[in-house]
Specification:
Blueprint: E1 13-16, E2 19-22, H1 34-46, E3 53-62, E4 72-81, E5 85-94, E6 97-108, H2 132-138, H3 145-154, E7 157-161, E8 176-183, H4 191-201, E9 223-234, E10 244-254, E11 257-266, E12 271-283
Antiparallel strand pairs: 1-2, 2-4, 3-6, 3-9, 4-5, 5-6, 7-8, 8-10, 9-12, 10-11, 11-12
Helix pairs in contact: 1-4
Length: 289
């Protein structure tokens, strides 16, 4: 198929005031990719705030699996417009059911005190790593049929995972992961687009980081995973035309849930965003149990 552009995912149709429709990408997973709903919901919320306000955080809940074969409708509620902050609630709907909720907060740019107590890890740079998509192409026969058919939709963002070989040869190790990412085709200098795209990308390889402690792979037939909630904070302007480092770790799993936290740095070592996600991680009984 023709090359897919990242920006096209956030070109939402305005149905009426506060109501938007986004087309879906089928990434070959069991359900609609959560990152799509994150990015489109943020884009929908952005369409209802003044241009001088920038999102600084959002908090979300995934309620039902989405259908990648159908569009998603986003219903945006104006909660508050204050002198410095604006708040929006976004409801994502498919087949008449709420599949997702987001609360997002936007702020005017203000000068204030500043500190950073976060250090970028010392890892191989993106030029020293193979693109994940190239790695998947070399291991095409190991992918599910759905993933094989959906590879073009994974191309718009160049993702380079440190030690990507463990995707197909999982082993017990520390639940940490480092991923470089940037868009393949340069995007316009639009903070709304870059933040929506980073929200989309923040769901890649995230919850699965918790599996590394157990030597499990997302493709294991007796494993069921689903995101429960996802939160994100934007600290500095985001530019996905340049490489960003997404470093993740999972501090806890238990009661069939796992939590993962992430930090996103630019190449200057500046922390540009932080993330948290909790999800269901359930092992089904095996046939020979």
């Amino acid at each position: 198929m023709s090359e897919v552009k990242m920006s096209s995912l956030f070109e939402l149709e305005s149905v009426e005031k506060g109501l938007f429709r986004g087309q879906s990408w089928d990434l070959g997973f069991r359900a609609l990719f959560g990152g799509q709903v994150l990015g489109q919901a943020l884009a929908a919320a952005y369409a209802t705030v003044d241009d001088d306000r920038v999102v600084h955080s959002f908090h979300t809940y995934f309620l039902l699996p989405g259908d990648a074969q159908k569009p998603v409708v986003y219903d945006v509620e104006v909660v508050r417009d204050g002198r410095s902050f604006s708040a929006r609630r976004v409801k994502a709907v498919q087949n008449g059911k709420n599949i997702f909720y987001m609360t997002a907060s936007f702020q005017l740019k203000e000068e204030a005190i500043h500190h950073q107590f976060a250090q970028m890890p010392d890892i191989p740079g993106p030029d020293e790593l193979e693109s994940d998509i190239s790695f998947y192409e070399k291991n095409f026969e190991k992918l599910s049929t759905g993933m094989q058919e959906a590879l073009s939709y994974h191309r718009p963002i160049d993702i380079r995972t440190v030690d990507a070989t463990r995707t197909f040869r999982p082993k017990k190790q520390e639940p940490t992961r480092n991923v470089w990412l940037k868009v393949r085709e340069p995007m316009d200098d639009d903070i709304k687009l870059h933040q929506s795209t980073l929200a989309y990308a923040s769901d890649y390889h995230f919850l699965s980081t918790a599996l590394q402690h157990y030597g499990l792979a997302v493709s294991d037939s007796n494993l069921r995973m689903a995101t429960i909630d996802h939160a994100m904070w934007f600290h500095r302007p985001v530019n996905l035309n340049d490489w960003l480092l997404y470093t993740m770790d999972s501090p806890f799993t238990g009661n069939n849930r796992g939590i993962v936290k992430g930090q996103i740095f630019n190449q200057q070592g500046e922390l540009v965003a932080s993330t948290m996600q909790e999800g269901m991680i359930r092992l089904l009984p095996t046939d020979n149990a």
